[in-house]
Amino acid sequence: MKVAALILTMFLASDSAAGQVLTVKNNIHAQLTNQNFVMRAPIDKVTELRGRSAELEHQINTLNNNLEALG
Which of 18, 31, 42, 45 lies at a C-alpha separation of 20 to 30 Å from 2? Predict the structure, then answer.
C-alpha cells in the first residue's frame, strides 16, 4: 500500500508542477506574441524569454511523459 501512496503523491506533484510550468509558459508566450512588447523590450529580454520558453516546453514534455508512465 505504501508504494501506491508514493506513486499517487508523485503523480499529483507532477500534475501540479506541469500546471505551474504551463502557466508560466503561457505567460511568456503572451509576451512574445505581443508585437508591441517585442518591439519595445530590450533584445536581451526577448532573447531570454525565448530561451526560457524553450526550456519550459522541454519541462512540459518531460512532465507529460512522466505522467503517462505513471498512468
Answer: 18
